[in-house]
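Worked example

This section walks through a single chain of length 448. The input is the sequence exactly as stored; nothing has been trimmed or padded.
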Amino acid sequence: MNILSLSVALALGLSARSQTIIRRDPVIEGMVKQVSADSLRAYVNTLVSFGTRHTMSSTSDKKRGIGAARGWVVQKFNEFARNSSGRMSAFVDTTTLQPDGRRVDVATSLGNAMAVLKGTDPNDDRVYIISGHLDSRVSDVMNRTADAPGANDDGSGTAAVIECARVMSRTPFPATIIFVAVAGEEQSLLGSTFLANKARTEGWNIDAMLNNDIMSSNNSSETNIIDNTRLRVFSESFSTTDTGRILQNIRNLGLENDGRSRQLARYVKETGERYVDNLEVVLVYRNDRFLRGGDHTPFVNKGYAAVRLTEMNENFLHQHQDLRTVKDTVYGDLAAFMDFEYLRKNTAVNLATLANLALAPAMPQEVRVDVRNLTNSTLLSWKAPKNGRAAGYYVLVRETTSPVWQRKVYTTDTTMRLPISKDHYFFAVQAVDAGGHESGAVVPGVGR
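Given that input, the structure is written out below as C-alpha cells.
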C-alpha cells in the first residue's frame, strides 16, 4: 500500500464507521463450540457438594472441605491429561501458612490445584495462566465450619478453568498454558501471591494471566438489572514496578493508558467478541472493583500482564452470605442463582483469548518510533519476535481519546511510515502468523 492510499484508508477508517469483517480460526472456533453449559453446571454442583471450601477447613476429610475439593480438581485435570498425548500434568502445589494475626489464625496447608499443558516448541518459554479461586466463605471470613457453597464465588471461575483445561488439553500449542484453582483468595489473595512469587523467583516468562472471579450471575441486587450479554474486564493502567525512569517515560509519552495489563484487556475484548456471539466485553479501566481486589493483583504487582474477568452485575444477596431466608429473601451463594449459559459464554472468552495467544508468535521486539526530526508523519520500526514464525505484522492505530485500537494496518515489512501525526494518535505493533493469530500489542519506545 503506497503512502497516498494508506493516508486515505486511515482518514476514512478513523473518521467514520465502516464494515468489520470477522475472521475466525476454525480450530479456535471448534474449541469454543465444545464449551458446555452442562459441564460447567456439573463442576459447580460437585464443588458445592464439598460443603465448605474455606482455606482453613479440613485438608484430610475425603468428602468435606478444601482438601477434598482440591483433590477432585486435580483428579479432573488428570482425566483430561489422558487426551493430551503426554503434554499435560496435574498436581497440588502446597505451602504452609503461618498465623498472621489477620485472616490466618492457625498453621494451614495452602494448596493450589494446577495443571500444566506444556508447549510443543522447546524454544518457546512463554507461559499463559488462567485462574479461579477454589476457596469459599460465608459472612464471617474466619468461619471454617459452616456450609459455604461458593457456587458463583468462585465455583464459577474454578469451573471455567476446569472446562478450559478439558477442551484445550486435546490441542497442541507452541506455548505453555497453566490452569490453576488457587486457594486463600478470601484470606487476602494468599494462593495467588504464593504463585506469583514463585513465578518471579523461578523466572517464568508469563505473557498473560486471566483471573476469573464471580462469573455467572446475570442479575444484580438493588438495581434489579437482568443481563447476560456483557462481561467486565478490569485492568490496571501500569504496574507498581513502573518507577523511576520507566514512570517518567510513561508520563513523557502519555502512556498512562497503555500498560501491559491494559493492552491485554483490549486483546481480550477484541478476541472474545470475535469468537463469542451475543456478548460484549466491557473494559473497566481500574485494577478491580472499587476498593476490592482479586487474584490477578499479585501478578500485576510483579510486573506481569494480568486482568480480572467478572460478571457485569453482582448480586450481594448471594455473595459472602450465611445461608438463610429472611422475609422470603434467600441469602447465600447457591447454584440456583447462576446462569450457566452466561457462564458458558464467559468461559469461551477465556478459551478464545488463551488459544489465540498461545498459537500466535511472540510479540515483536525493539518496537521504536523514530524521533530524529520533527515530522507530521510517523515512522515505526521493529524486529521479528523471539519465538514463533511471523507471517507479517499489524500496526495498530487509535486516537488519544479512544479506549480501544481503531484500525489495523498489515505489512510484511519491519518498518512502516504512517501519514499521521504522533501528536494525535497512539500506535502499537503485533506479530501475526499465517493462521491470523495475533501476538500481544507492543507500544513503541523512542528511537533515533
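What to look for: The chain has two domains: 26-359, 364-446.
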